[in-house]
Design goal:
The complex is a heterodimer of chains A (268) and B (175). By secondary structure, chain A is an alpha+beta fold. Chain A contains four helices and twelve strands; from the N terminus they run H-H-H-H-E-E-E-E-E-E-E-E-E-E-E-E. Chain A has helices at residues 2-25, 29-64, 66-86, 88-110, and strands spanning 115-123, 130-133, 146-150, 153-161, 166-170, 177-182, 189-195, 199-206, 216-219, 231-239, 246-253, 262-266. Chain A is globular, with a radius of gyration of 23 Å. The model of chain A has no long low-confidence stretch (mean pLDDT 81). Helices cover 76% and strands 0% of the residues of chain B. In chain B, helix 3 (34-46) runs antiparallel to helix 4 (48-65), helix 3 (34-46) packs parallel to helix 5 (72-91) and helix 6 (97-124) runs antiparallel to helix 7. The chains are: A alpha+beta (268), B mainly alpha (175).
């Protein structure tokens, strides 16, 4: 009995090694295609249910903590109001930025990018900052293409492409890197990295450039397949230390990274 | 034959629930590893061979949807099934509720360590461009996994205890 069990574990490991070998030789492509075609609608349905549960949970938590949240929100608004009163000039900048943002959105629509609408079908067990979408190489997707979640806001890049599905790494992941610049001043550029799956950090910003709060940050377009001008976030915190060679900034994301159901992939 | 088809269907469905539903439920849902729980539970309570098959089938489907190196989930689940069976037959005397929980916790820790080691070596040898950081978030996630996987194992135990005579002899001891 013991030897037959030992045999089974050895056989299964040997079969697995053979499958891995075949997978990397491309010999499993047909089987993989059939399986993903069958499974994608099911995982997609499960994902929608999961998002429904998420929405319900967050609404419930919000209802329960409504008083606490309102108080906190009130304090934050008060602080914002005071800050805005003191810095009247910043209001003008904000107004200008708002105008630019509208122009940018219009610009993005007018540019006529070829887009592929996709549905999110799952998230990875070990990489929560990744999404699996239901479009792949058969739809013309390649590694490195940008993912747009809402109104021209980039939220990630494709890191792996299969025939019928692709994996997207969100910008909030620590392994994500994206070349970005200021919408107002293209000389203010840097590299955007994720911070623990929660926020966005713009690094390697030239020290001699003056970055402002609430400044809109967009993609710089120096990366292959990533067009310039895709919205990323607004500057919420600036770090400019005297001993450092570059300055850095924390951005408030313009996209919602927690509840992404549908995305657009911009083709090159 | 019917039993085997049902078993295969159940493992496939559980894998799809893991990929589509649990992984989309935020930090807590994402910490539940249904396939790992099934591998542990089936290996201890039912049959080692079935445990191996559930590791193999479940792992392959997770691998199909994972951006990580193909085969990593299946390989680690198979190792976990082998280790759980080894620990159970050599260090635990019976199929009690407590041995299930202790082995569940141990298996979750081993699973995470193995995963980290494999991903690290694949990254070092340029076979993968993904890596994990062994930081406080990883530790917190591990704690969440131990708690949630234990809850799932308890639910499995209660469910099977209600349905089957397999665990009826006593809550603490059978066989």
């Amino acid at each position: 009995m013991k030897s037959s069990r030992f045999k089974l574990s050895t056989i299964l490991i040997a079969v697995l090694l053979l499958l891995v070998f075949l997978y990397y030789l491309g010999g499993l492509g047909f089987t993989e295609n059939i399986l993903t075609k069958i499974f994608n609608p099911i995982t997609g349905r499960f994902y929608s249910w999961g998002q429904g549960v998420n929405d319900f949970y967050y609404k419930k938590v919000k209802d329960k903590r409504v008083a606490e949240d309102l108080l906190k929100e009130n304090e934050e608004l008060e602080e914002k109001y005071q800050s805005l009163l003191k810095e009247n000039a910043e209001l003008k900048i904000l107004a200008k930025e708002n105008e630019l943002l509208k122009k940018e959105l219009k610009f993005s629509k007018e540019r006529g990018h070829q887009i592929v609408p996709s549905r999110v079908i799952s998230r990875d067990l070990f990489l929560p900052n990744t999404l699996t979408i239901d479009k792949g190489a058969k739809d013309g997707l390649v590694r490195g293409l940008p993912i747009i979640a809402e109104e021209g806001v980039i939220v990630g890049k494709i890191i792996k492409v299969k025939d019928n599905s692709s994996t997207v790494l969100l910008l909030t992941d620590v392994q994500s890197k994206l070349a970005v610049m200021s919408l107002d001043d293209q000389d203010i550029n840097g590299i955007l990295r994720g911070e623990h799956g929660l926020s966005l950090k713009m690094e390697l910003i030239p020290k001699n450039k003056e970055l402002r709060y609430n400044e809109i940050i967009v993609t710089s377009g120096i990366e292959t397949n990533i067009p310039p001008g895709l919205l990323v976030g607004t500057v919420s915190q600036i770090t400019n230390l005297s001993g450092e060679l570059f300055q850095s900034a924390i951005l408030s994301p313009l996209g919602n990274y927690h509840n992404i159901k549908f995305v657009l992939v911009i083709l090159p | 034959m019917k039993r085997i088809f049902l078993f295969i269907f159940f493992i496939i469905l559980s894998s799809l629930v893991q990929i589509g539903l649990l992984n989309s439920l935020g930090d807590w849902g994402n910490s539940i590893n249904l396939i790992l729980c099934l591998v542990i539970f089936i290996t201890i309570i039912f049959n080692y061979s079935y445990g191996l098959w559930s590791a193999f089938l479940g792992g392959l489907i997770l691998d199909l949807y994972s951006p990580l190196t193909f085969g990593i989930f299946t390989f680690i689940f198979l190792i976990i099934a082998i280790l759980v069976n080894f620990l159970f037959t050599n260090f635990f005397t019976n199929k009690s509720f407590y041995s299930l929980l202790v082995l569940g916790g141990l298996a979750t820790i081993l699973y995470n360590l193995l995963f980290y080691i494999f991903v690290y070596f694949l990254f070092v040898f340029n076979l993968s461009d993904t890596y994990f950081l062994l930081d406080i978030t990883w530790l917190k996630n591990l704690m969440n996994q131990i708690i949630l996987n234990s809850i799932i194992l308890i639910l499995f135990f209660i469910f099977v205890n209600k349905l089957s005579k397999r665990l009826k002899a006593t809550f603490l001891w059978i066989d």
